[in-house]
Design a protein that fits this description.
By secondary structure, the chain is an alpha/beta fold. The chain has five helices and five strands. The protein has a five-stranded parallel sheet with strand order 1-5-4-2-3. Helix 4 links the parallel strand 4 and strand 5. Helix 4 packs across helix 5. It is globular, with a radius of gyration of 16 Å. The termini are close together.
Length: 216
């Protein structure tokens, strides 16, 4: 059955997970969630959240307070903290966005995840088309420096969806911002395999449905 997402309300309170464990196609929810439950508060004296790696250009204005997500719903089994891959029950969410706005939608999802308490090192952002501005900026200093940041795993990392060296993280965000259907058809299952808890896909619902249907 095709996914019929609603218009996302990015700045509303972040809801608890609504998607079911991914097994084939799953019903999406239009807004990202921080995963299986609220993250623990940072140590005394530490900042409440860490901003994602800055894109080239001026810094974004300060964000207003974001409501904490509600307590995790009971009645569904949650994956263990160290589990990865679809066998651990990674959830799938779809955020509708045109190809030209998929990166912006992915950035909004990352902001909400960080504001909700996700550690930056738990998030991997992949693009199917044009490289994310942060990745393009860091690659300008050389691949050694770029991949050293990936291996350190202490910040949000941005990579091309076809980059085999990018390893899995608890949360994977995919911006379907271009490329052929063939490339996208390979990228989405690969992204699901990398996601330990949550996979968020930002893109055109019709195209994503067609790709998921072809892989069902």
């Amino acid at each position: 059955m095709p996914l019929i997402p609603e218009e996302p309300q990015i700045h509303e309170s972040v809801p608890g997970p609504r998607a079911t464990p991914a097994a084939g196609r799953t019903a999406p929810t239009p807004r990202p969630v921080p995963g299986p439950g609220p993250r623990p508060a940072p140590p005394r004296g530490a900042p409440a959240s860490s901003a994602r790696p800055g894109k080239p250009g001026p810094a974004a204005p300060p964000r207003g307070p974001v409501a904490a997500p509600p307590a995790q719903r009971t009645g569904s089994q949650q994956p263990a903290a160290g589990d990865t891959g679809p066998a651990a029950g990674a959830q799938l969410q779809l955020i509708p966005a045109p190809a030209g706005g998929a990166i912006d939608a992915a950035d909004e999802a990352v902001d909400l995840l960080l504001d909700s308490g996700r550690a930056p090192g738990e998030i991997l952002v992949l693009t199917t088309g044009e490289t994310h501005p942060w990745a393009a900026h860091e690659l300008s200093f050389g691949e050694a420096s770029y991949w050293a940041q990936h291996d350190a795993a202490d910040d949000v990392f941005y990579a091309d969806a076809t980059a085999e060296r990018a390893t899995g993280r608890p949360v994977v965000v995919v911006a379907v911002n271009g490329a052929s259907d063939e490339v996208t058809a390979r990228a989405l299952p690969a992204a699901m395999a990398r996601a330990g808890v949550l996979l968020i896909v930002c893109g055109d619902p019709q195209r994503i449905n067609a790709v998921l249907g072809a892989n069902a």
